[in-house]
Design goal:
The complex is a heterodimer of chains A (503) and B (251).
Chain A (H helix, E strand, L loop, with lengths): L1 H4 L1 H17 L14 E3 L6 H10 L4 H15 L23 E3 L14 H9 L22 E7 L2 E5 L2 H6 L3 E4 H7 L1 H7 L10 H9 L4 E5 L8 E7 L10 E6 L4 E9 L7 E11 L4 E8 L12 E11 L5 E8 L4 E4 L2 E4 L5 E10 L4 E10 L5 E10 L4 E10 L7 E10 L5 E10 L5 E10 L2 H9 L4 H12 L1 H4 L4 H14 L6
Parallel strand pairs in A: 3-7, 6-8, 7-9, 8-10, 9-11, 10-12, 11-13, 12-14, 12-15, 13-16, 14-17, 15-17, 16-18, 17-19, 18-20, 19-21, 20-22
Antiparallel strand pairs in A: 1-2, 3-4, 5-6
Chain B lengths: L1 E10 L5 E10 L4 E5 L6 H9 L4 E10 L2 E2 L5 H6 L2 E4 L6 E5 H15 L7 H14 L4 H5 L1 E2 L5 H15 L3 E5 L7 H14 L5 E5 L3 H6 L4 E6 L2 E6 L2 H9 L2 H7 L1
Parallel strand pairs in B: 3-10, 3-11, 6-9, 9-10
Antiparallel strand pairs in B: 1-2, 1-4, 4-5, 7-8, 11-12
Helix pairs in contact in B: 6-7
The chains are: A alpha/beta (503), B alpha/beta (251).
Bound molecules: adenosine-5'-diphosphate and magnesium ion.
Chain lengths: 503, 251
């Protein structure tokens, strides 16, 4: 963050935005498809499919049982309908639940053995699967800013970089399917301990059919020597992606984790239901940043990803600290509430969010801050931007439990409207069961101001540059919370997702 | 440089005529001043020339260096060299002043097919120009005009003008709300930019700015028209007698 305050750096960041707006001709730039042979599980969902996924991942019996229990539970649940999103009924039998590039049938021993077409896909997406590279478009600032990447393609992890170097520090960074095989004691202990199998409709579905995802373990007292990231790519048609991420930060451990997602441009909507669990012991700290750029559907609302995600952090240890930062620009439908359970005394949760909905996109997103421990603190900064005919809802819960002595929450919730056919909604739920707890909530709604745009244009910027500049200004508090690599990408993305929203 | 002929302008939204036949020619390298009572249409003229929405040109023309500008987008007029120092500069929260300036400078350069300035070059030039306007590093970092005092806002306008190096500068009441020292700074900023190739149209209420920025020509505007044109002495006349005499004389 300190670096972002520096004028010169900020200059560079903004120039990126402007360049991005001008270079990309108004279209989703990750919409290409990789032409590759895919092996599918039979269409539809039943116990056999669950068994098949487990078998493909060479899982032990206990894992299969865990999945089956979730599946049986799921059959008895109903899809929630309280969110302010409206989409055609999902036919869960008309989906593929497992899709793997044929070339991944035998797990490659190293990245050198990975199918060049897959490597090419990630190169095209700007994701480096080489161990000295950085995220796209980012020049190395001084010092090393290396990022380890786990690349997930449809249902499988293609490879993970820097594994050995991380292992030297005691850090485990691998796909969850590998973790189930290689670190069963950790997975058994923590999987489902933050988001139980029965948590909600989509999380339960995920528990039954998740195919891959990332696993991170940071041992006691260890600061992870580099940023970790997972890049999710949906490629196969009619296929849901169900990934599962589990991050464990032992006492005094620290890690910054980044997550990015894209998908090809298709007419038919696709399902994505992920679960992310974070476990924090005493004095641990996790920063979890997401840039979600799934295909949003076209201008008429055709296609796009339905994104139903359950993300939760459990601050079990005293003084632990979690920070969720998300930039949600993609998906046709977003249903996502990264949450913090502030169980440890003096633990802290932060949630910074930019949610952009353009054209026909619908976003219902926010957070839950559950204050259980004494002196727990939480901070929510949400920036919702609506354009086109989009609907954007902030939904948040702040709950102060009886033992949350002196707990504090501060919520700032700002909405920005571009044009007059879109909507912004703020739905805060507040529960206070301890008199010493304090909750502060501020909310604003504004429109992109014509006077601001004219001022920018009089100085020489075109309309889209002007909008990008004003919107990035509106989002600044959140952009600053992102690691630098992501801040630039996110800023460019903000501009791109709003293209065509004016004039 | 700027040639306005018989310009008639009304509001788009309601049936109201504001400019009723403005004729005005500003020669290259000259400084013209426009004075006139509140509501006479001075700001409207500056907005119409720079391309703000909401106005409808019903008759007449405006040319910048022989090119009709009235059909151009605001940013095209800017790139062509037209600059407006706003009477009420707009605040843009979250956007650093420096970022704004650099985006603007490079947008214009790009539009003219020129090479963009690198971050380092840009920084060097800004610091120089900011210094002479007594704009410190802090003000350059702060969001555009947010929390700026009246004087800071106006100095910031002049900084933008200095950075963009326009050919035709329109200043709309850049002196209003300034104390004597601030006004001197602004005037010095403007004078530093005076150049054989650059013209100014200075809109003001008060003679005192014109003590510092010496105009070549002074116009009086009333009820949407230029009603009288003269030399610097015309500004003194207004200062001493107000508009009443002049208006009575031309009525
Ligand atoms: N957008 C607008 N809507 C309504 N009235 C306007 C608008 N712009 C200008 N006017 C009117 O036009 C007249 C001229 O205004 P203006 O150009 O601001 O004058 P000046 O700058 O000389 O004080 C005034 O009567 C003002 O109220
Ligand atoms: Mg005025």
């Amino acid at each position: 963050m300190a670096a972002l305050d520096d004028v010169q750096v900020k200059e560079g960041v903004d120039q990126e935005t402007v360049d991005a707006v001008q270079s990309v001709g108004g279209k989703y730039k990750y919409g290409f498809e990789t032409d590759i042979e895919i092996e599918y599980a039979p269409k539809g969902l039943n116990e056999d499919i669950v068994r098949l996924i487990s078998e493909k991942n060479k899982e032990p019996e206990w894992m299969l049982e865990w999945r089956l229990a979730a599946y049986r539970r799921w059959l008895q649940m109903e899809e929630p309908d309280w969110a302010m999103v409206d989409y055609p009924e999902i036919d869960f039998q008309d989906q593929y639940y497992y899709a793997r590039p044929k070339s991944m049938a035998e797990k490659p021993k190293s990245l050198d053995d990975v199918d060049p077409k897959l490597l090419e896909t990630y190169a095209k997406l700007g994701i480096p699967l080489k161990e000295q590279a950085l995220l796209a478009g980012v020049e190395a600032p001084e010092g090393d800013r290396r990022v380890a990447v786990d690349a997930v393609f449809d249902s499988v992890s293609v490879g993970t970089t820097f594994k050995d170097e991380l292992a030297k520090a005691g850090v485990i960074f691998c796909s969850i399917s590998e973790a189930i095989q290689d670190h069963p004691e950790l997975v058994k202990k923590y999987l489902g301990s933050v988001v139980p199998q029965s948590d909600n409709y989509y999380a339960t579905l995920n528990s039954a059919v998740f195919s891959d995802g990332s696993f991170v373990y940071i041992p006691e007292g260890t600061k992870c020597p580099m940023e970790l990231s997972t890049y999710f790519r949906i490629n196969a048609e009619n296929t849901g992606q169900f990934e599962r991420t589990l991050i464990i930060a032992e006492k005094g451990a620290y890690v910054s984790y980044l997550e990015g997602c894209t998908a090809p441009q298709r007419d038919i909507a696709q399902l994505h239901a992920a679960v992310v669990e974070l476990v924090l012991l005493e004095d641990a700290e996790i920063k979890y940043s997401t840039v979600q750029n799934w295909f949003p559907g076209d201008e008429e609302g055709k296609g796009g990803i339905y994104n139903f995600v359950t993300k939760r952090a459990d601050c079990r240890g005293d003084r632990s600290k979690v920070m969720w930062t998300q930039v949600e620009t993609g998906s046709a439908v977003t249903w996502k509430y990264p949450s913090c359970i502030l169980r440890g005394d003096d633990s802290q949760g932060e949630f910074y969010s930019i949610a952009i909905a353009n054209n026909m996109q619908q976003a219902d997103t926010g957070t839950k801050m559950i204050h259980l421990g004494k002196n727990t603190k939480s901070r929510i900064v949400s920036k919702g931007i609506s354009a086109g005919k989009a609907q954007n809802t902030y939904r948040g819960l702040v709950s102060m439990h009886p033992k949350a002595q002196n707990a504090r929450n501060y919520t700032q919730c700002d909405s920005l409207l571009i044009g007059d056919k879109c909507g912004a909604h703020t739905v805060p739920y507040i529960e206070v069961k301890n008199n010493s707890a304090r909750v502060e909530h501020e909310a604003t709604t504004s429109k992109v101001d014509d006077e601001q745009l004219f001022y920018c244009r009089q100085r020489g910027m075109d309309e889209e540059e002007a909008v990008a500049l004003v919107v990035n200004g509106f989002c600044k508090d959140v952009l600053q919370a992102l690691p630098m690599e992501f801040a630039m990408e996110a800023q460019a993305l903000v501009a791109i997702s709003l293209e065509g929203s004016v004039g | 440089m700027l040639e306005i002929k018989n310009l008639h302008v009304g509001l788009e939204e309601e049936d109201k005529q504001i400019l009723k036949g403005v004729n005005l020619t500003v020669e290259t390298g000259k400084v013209h001043a426009i004075m006139g009572p509140n509501g006479s249409g001075k700001s409207t003229l500056s907005y119409v020339l720079s391309g703000k929405d909401g106005y409808e040109v019903t008759d007449g023309s405006a040319e910048l260096e022989g090119v009709d500008i009235l059909d151009m987008e605001p940013e095209e007029r800017a790139a062509a060299g037209l600059f407006l120092a706003f009477q009420y500069p707009v605040e843009i929260p979250g956007v650093g002043n420096m970022t704004f300036l650099r985006t603007a400078v490079n947008a214009q350069r790009k539009a003219r097919g020129e090479e963009e300035l690198s971050a380092a070059e840009f920084l060097k030039v800004v610091r120089e120009k900011a210094k002479s306007l007594k704009i410190d590093a802090d003000m350059l970092k702060r969001p555009v005009n947010v929390g700026f005092s009246g004087g800071e806002k106006k100095r910031n306008e002049i900084l933008q003008m200095a950075m963009l190096e326009p050919k035709m500068c329109i200043l709309d009441e850049t002196d209003s709300g300034l104390d004597v020292d601030a006004m001197k700074l602004v005037a010095e900023g403007v004078n530093a930019l005076r150049d054989a190739g650059r013209s100014f149209l200075v809109i003001t209420h008060y003679q005192r700015l014109l003590d510092h920025i010496k105009p070549d020509v002074v116009h009086i505007m009333a009820d949407g028209k230029i009603v009288k044109t003269g030399g610097p002495e015309l500004a003194l006349e207004v200062e001493n007698n107000g508009y009443a005499d002049i208006l009575a004389e031309v009525a």
